[in-house]
Specification:
Blueprint: H1 2-20, H2 24-89, H3 92-111, H4 120-139, E1 142-145, E2 157-164, E3 173-178, E4 180-183, E5 186-189, E6 191-197
Parallel strand pairs: 2-6
Antiparallel strand pairs: 1-4, 3-6, 4-5
Helix pairs in contact: 3-4
Length: 199
Amino acid sequence: MAKERSEEEQIGEEAHAEMETPSPEEQHAAEEALEAELAADAGESALEAEVASLHVQLAEHKDMVLRAQAEVQNARRRAQQDVEKAHKFGLEKLLKDLVPVVDNLERALSTIDSEHEAHKAVVEGIELTHKSFLDTLGKYSVEVIDPAGEPFDPELHQAMTQVPNGDVEPNTVLDVFQKGYRLNGRLLRPAMVVVSKAP
């Protein structure tokens, strides 16, 4: 009996040993499966890394595109402002040269005796020319600055002298030597004025 058991045990052990030790083919297949699994894991992690890298690149390119669009909009806005300024102030130099003609017409009117019969036609001609000239300047958005009696404004007026005067508030324009002009709100020439001061 003991002999039979030992043979049975022996057969069982051999069968168990056969089950525990795989054949070389099985071992090779298991190794290949393990390598394939490792390769799949490595491929997945490589894909994940590549996807993360592509996300970073996409964010960088989006940022670059937004910056480029902002630069184009800024350049367009600057160009539009330059065109507007050219339209508004393109005649500034010409108008600065024409303004003294108005001054000369006003001086001529102030020196001629308008009561004298012989001078009436000349005075009328100069007045019409002066009015026509001012109307033409007005068409080009030129405004006359004639601040007599107004408070002194250093942005628009140039004080030639100060005169003590108790009848008006200090820093009031008493007299205008030369009128000033503005083109579309920008100063072409300041008005030259006499300003009051406290006596």
